[in-house]
Write a structure and sequence with these properties.
The protein is an alpha+beta fold. The chain is 42% helix and 16% strand. Helix 1 (114-122) packs across helix 3 (150-165), helix 2 (131-144) runs antiparallel to helix 3 (150-165) and helix 6 (207-213) packs across helix 7.
Length: 297
């Protein structure tokens, strides 16, 4: 039986009242000191002059360049922007918090809103936007906090979201198994394979086995899966296993060796190698780093 840590992620209480739609915080700061947290509202977070700052979104840990823009639409996805190696004394941050029921509203099934809905689904894992997208919406983000009338600020937010939804080269940050999200907009074959991997990731999973399950040749299935997911089957399985492993590193006190085998890795050496390659640090270092960002609530 796992010994669960008594530390939890801070559940942020957002400032929106019952009939409010959006909160915008436009601020300049000398550094970051807010702990790892999560909240019910969606968040679009822009950072300027933040080179060297550390961004944690789920099991993704990265250092920022000069600009950063991330969208998060899951209430269960913990995140934090931390000081890291940043030397800037004037970090400019614009945080936009809002909520839209994209899963149950027919409004988001209409043609004009379809790309925004798809972006929201992907952003349950956290979405990082490329510099081209950031520069495209930069003037609108700068203007948003200056708009006094709620209706016009709402329209400006939708303009920002729509422009961002047109970019293809965005990156999902957290692994799906760590973020505990499952999308339903994939082809039936991809969804069937992902469901199988989610249920059997501890076991050995072979390409021939998956291709037979969806009635395709191994070669055709490999091309199909890579085209639909951007990853080979082997890469996807490793990501799923690492997502579960990082969740166990954070939520339990199980030894790293036990976590390794509990998540389907054959050897501790291979687990450590793959973990460092994907996360940039060892499992033990990741656990220690994440523990420092938690607070008792």
């Amino acid at each position: 039986m796992s010994q669960v840590e008594k530390k939890e992620i801070l559940q942020e209480i957002t400032p929106l009242e019952e009939h409010d739609f959006m909160f915008v915080a436009d601020r300049h700061k000398a550094g970051y000191d807010y702990p790892l947290h999560r909240h019910e509202l969606f968040e679009l977070n822009f950072v300027e002059h933040g080179a060297g700052c550390e961004r944690i979104v789920g099991d993704s840990v990265e250092f920022l360049g000069e600009y950063d823009l991330v969208l998060i639409t899951s209430p269960n996805l913990e995140h934090q922007w931390a000081q890291g190696n940043c030397q800037s004394k004037d970090i400019h941050e614009v945080t936009i918090q809002f909520y839209l029921d994209f899963k149950n509203s027919k409004f988001f099934d209409t043609n004009p809103m379809r790309s925004i809905k798809q972006m929201f689904i992907r952003a349950q894992r956290g979405l990082s936007f490329p510099s081209s997208a950031i520069m495209m919406v930069y003037p609108r983000i700068m203007r948003l906090s200056q708009i006094k009338e709620g209706f016009y600020s709402l329209m400006e937010l939708f303009n920002i979201l729509y422009e961002l939804s047109k970019f293809d080269d965005v990156r999902e940050l957290s692994s799906s198994s760590f973020a505990r999200v499952q999308t339903n907009m994939e082809s039936r074959r991809v969804a069937k394979v992902k469901d199988f991997v989610a249920a059997h990731y501890i076991e050995e999973i072979r390409l021939n086995q998956m291709s037979k399950m969806v009635n395709m040749s191994p070669t055709a299935f490999s091309r199909f899966f890579k085209l639909r997911t951007g990853k080979t089957l082997a890469e996807y399985i490793v990501d799923v296993r690492l997502g579960h492993a990082t969740r166990m590193l954070i939520d339990t006190k199980e030894p790293v060796s036990q976590i390794c085998f509990s998540c389907g890795f054959n050897t501790l050496t291979n687990f450590n190698r793959l973990f460092r390659k994907r996360k940039g640090c060892s499992p033990t270092e990741f656990r220690e780093k994440y523990a420092k960002t938690k607070v008792i609530v």
